[in-house]
Design brief:
By secondary structure, this protein is α+β, with helices and mostly antiparallel strands. Helix content is 21%, strand content 47%. It starts with a helix and ends with a strand.
Length: 72
C-alpha cells in the first residue's frame, strides 16, 4: 500500500459510517464508530457519533495504526 492507495481507501469510505480501530502510544488501543467527513491533502477528519472530531494522516493507515472496519 502507498499513499495514493490510502487516499483511495479513505475516499471510498467518505460519508460512510464505519468502525475504526486506532493503535495509539504505549499499547493504548481505541475503538470507535464514526464517519469520515472531510479529506484534505495530508489528513482526513472523522466525526464520531458523540460529535467528537478526530483527525488522522494517511500514513496512519499505511503503518497500520488506524484500521477501517466495515459496519456491515
Amino acid at each position: 500500500m502507498n499513499i495514493d492507495v490510502a487516499k483511495r481507501v479513505v475516499k471510498s469510505n467518505l460519508l460512510v459510517r464505519n468502525r475504526f480501530l486506532y493503535k495509539g502510544n504505549r499499547n493504548q488501543n481505541e475503538e470507535f464508530i464514526g464517519t469520515i467527513s472531510k479529506m484534505f491533502p495530508a489528513i482526513f477528519i472523522i466525526e464520531l457519533d458523540n460529535s467528537v472530531i478526530k483527525s488522522f494522516s494517511y500514513s496512519d493507515l499505511l503503518v497500520g495504526n488506524l484500521k477501517i472496519i466495515d459496519e456491515k
